[in-house]
Design a protein that fits this description.
The chain is of the alpha+beta class. The protein has three domains: 113 residues, Periplasmic binding protein-like II (D-Maltodextrin-Binding Protein, domain 2), CATH 3.40.190; 112 residues, Alpha-Beta Complex (Dipeptide-binding Protein, domain 1); 211 residues, Dipeptide-binding Protein, domain 3, CATH 3.10.105. Helices cover 32% and strands 23% of the residues. Helix 9 packs antiparallel against helix 11 and helix 15 runs antiparallel to helix 16. The longest helix is centred in the first third of the chain and has 20 residues. The relative contact order is 0.15. The N terminus is likely disordered.
Amino acid sequence: MALKKNLALALAFGLAAGAAQAQDLRIGLQDDADVLDPDQARTFVGRIVFESLCDKLVDITPDLEIVPQLATEWEWSEDGMTLTMMLREDVVFHDGTAFDAEAVVANIDRSQNLPESRRASEISSISGAEVIDEFTVRFTLSAPDATLLAQLSDRAGMMISPTAAEEAGLDFGRAPVCSGPYSFVERIQQDRIVLERFADHWDADAYSFDTVTFLPIPDTTVRLANLRAGDLDMLERLAATDAGSVGGDDSLTMEQATSLGYQAITINVGNGEQAEGPLGQDARVRQALSLSIDRDAIAQVVFEGAVAPGNQPWPPTSPWYNADFPLPERDVEAARELLTEAGFPDGVDITVQVANNPVQQQVMQVVQSMAAEAGIRISLEAKEFATLLSDQTAGAYQASQVGWSGRVDPDGNLHQFVTTDGGINDSGYSNAEVDSFLNEARVSNDTEARRAAYNGASEILMEDLPIVYLYHPVWIWAMDASVEGFVPYPDGMIRLADVTMAE
């Protein structure tokens, strides 16, 4: 009996030790993700989850170079009308479906033709996808597309299991099946998303954690408190005002990178009945709102100077920034004159929805105070982020304080937001001349020709202002000092290859 008892104790101890060795990386997100379907999704935090869940055809380096992922190499035809990709031969989806050229063709077809797809405009240049052999696929384009590889480095290039997609239909996002280093386990809305290590991943040795749990915690103070208490191992978007505190804490480390994106106020100018008010129907009212805002003050008051004030879809450090449209100085009198000219000498009342996190609410409270001095009375509606986006899509809003995490190619920061058929044109904005400029920029591989097209579009957009840009963020990540190997990227994503956590 004693021997059996000792064996039982040894076995129990061994199991406990094995369990202790299992590592769960817990990541605090600023918002909850929307649907976990790369074709339907649109949230920034959703992209963070996808980074561990769904491999892409290509990826980027921290220096924004396009590099292989599921595609090992590629070549363009001389006329830029075809793109041929050679694929990895050691990839399998989480459900066991093989990844091959037929799977790529099925993914492109879904992205283009699923009625609910938000990727269709991103890859609209692809007129045909053809299987050349088991691991070679060729895309035929309707016109040269300088943006295509950049699009394929994001959600448009994420590959999902055709088997699972066909079986689940629009419910695919409830239990997504991709080929990334981690597979889906469970999701509880507003609480957690849990992934587990996929042993059959083609690069499985680069991933150390048994599970990765994403926890939406909108309050930046609470998110940091959870990190300090040991309930999180990492968080994204540390508040700039907390950077000094984290930097002085030996138990924590911090990384940061300048964002490719922006924060702005999107205005409903043509998306349903709520576009019918003064703000939506008169560009002078939108111009008055823009002139009432001191962007430098927002940067200092809310972020202690840790963001770049902005008035364009790309930051002043970008080669695509148009110096002919410098950051406007605040001019309350000019704003009042514009309102009077538009027929509103007593001012206007508008409603702006804002995400229910303290940073964005503080931004809009500062804007609210500034705009009031010009006669623009803003009512704020705080909403959970996924709800805010849903209401934008439906046109159930007048204006929305919302941002964009940014893309490698400038097209990704503008085209889909302001072209008539843009996949994320929640503003309902439509201008044939803007469409022409931005479509022209897509088909040229000549940098100066593209720049001229973007400048032409910007000249119109600066007058029409369907989007009022405010600032360009700096991504800041904070983590427990035991987390090692994390590399910051300008796109704000969390890539877990070669990231480890000391015991």
